[in-house]
Amino acid sequence: MAKSATSQLLFHSSDWNFKTLSRAYDGIETIALDELGLNVYPNQLEIISAEQMLDAYSSVGMPLMYQHWSFGKRFVFEEHHYRKGHHGLAYELVINSNPCITYLMEGNTMAMQTLVTAHASFGHNHFFKNNYLFRQWTDANAILSYMEFSKKYIAKCEERHGTSAVEAILDSAHALMEQGVFRSRRPPRLSSKKEQERARERLEYEEQTYSDLWRTLPRSAERPNPEEAEREALERKKVLNLPEENLLYFLEKNSLILEPWQRELLRIVRVIAQYFYPQRQTKVMNEGCATFVHYTIINRLFDQGKISEGAILEMLHSHSSVVFQPTFDDPRYSGINPYALGFAMMQEIERICNNPTSEDRDWFPHIAGSGQWRETLLDAWANHRDESFILQYLSPALIRKFRLFLLTDQRNEKYCEVAAIHNERGYRAVRAALAKSYDIGANQPDVQVVDVDLLGDRQLRLRHNIKNGILLEEKERDATLQHVRHLWGYDVSLVGIDAETGKVRYECATA
């Protein structure tokens, strides 16, 4: 019996080879697809070294990334801290692509390779393929070919126009990446290879046929009356589709000084920014999904006798480290751990569906005692982001477990006020406040292009819609405006308007 049980193990030691990796993958896949009902892209596993992982860190986790000095600076920083032992490296890295590429560290033990394969190749993979934000805002089928094109294109631009000229555009584009995404409407899909080739031909044609003579035409000295000026302003705003929230998109399409190759660099940067936008909105859900999936799979493998006690203890030790939530007075505390919160909420959903309390039945009547925890989780993973997930599924029991309460801190008051405690009204207030803290739209500056007279002074007018009285840091604001001016070529002004009162809080412009 002992010999038979041992022979069922997927691996017998910490050493691994591609045969044991394949055997472990098959065991994981059976549970993930047949028992959990996951729907994943085809998987591609790659083994990388520590230096390759550091390189991936420095280039925002993307393979085939173009070269830029900021990536090299980040690489030196990460390598220094890694060599000094200040921090370790991730056990894996996963790419939202089709096929889904998972990079495994060559130094991992076989137990860790099993854990991270379940975590990344099935947990993250399922979330990438099925969550509505990734389906709506990214194209997993095209991202790798697009990154390959962008790397070659930027290298070609450096050869043709010089490294300094290319870096100057990329520096300004990187400074505007957070303002280079579509938030309220679907972005254009990535081009196919054929469409990309047509775009290259069009850019080359524009370069060959461009004429600068139009700028020498004399301007009319007549000034329109106020009513006519207002009509013209409304008309040009309509033509330019203003206001526009995506600054990089507007500059790419409308800047009067950028050459075709420079416009393409802006497009490359904003496509990458758009690719990462859903990940910023689903950090808790994405990591919670992957952690819940790997935890469920490794326990099922142990129950089936396919991994040993020593292996699962190693896995659970790593799992516990990942979901550890330091207390507020712990030196390691840096906020709420997204792994801890996401995993705990998904465990709560399983508990509520299987073993609800009377409190659970009051708060979650649609799922309490249904026994359909798989279906509930699959639906949540597909149809929610962090904000809506927390707002709908954070339970009073979990609020008590995490010891959450709500403080209000008014600038003109001497003391903080405890605004919500552990009662029914307090639970709702805590849940709403925590959900709002994960709303990117509420926590990032809302800066939009609102007007520009292309036939007049050509000054680009931006508006900052101030929320909750939070102003932009002056030094960073002015530096960013200079990057906008660099790409626009003319003066840029910014006005800060309070979103609640409509009052102007500040005005500034480039020199």
Automatic annotation (TrEMBL):
Location of the SpoVR protein-like N-terminal domain: 15-441
Span of domain SpoVR-like C-terminal: 445-498
Pfam families: SpoVR (PF04293), SpoVR_C (PF24755)
PANTHER family linked: STAGE V SPORULATION PROTEIN R
Record protein name field: Spore cortex formation protein SpoVR/YcgB (Stage V sporulation)
Lineage of source species: Bacteria, Pseudomonadati, Pseudomonadota, Alphaproteobacteria, Hyphomicrobiales
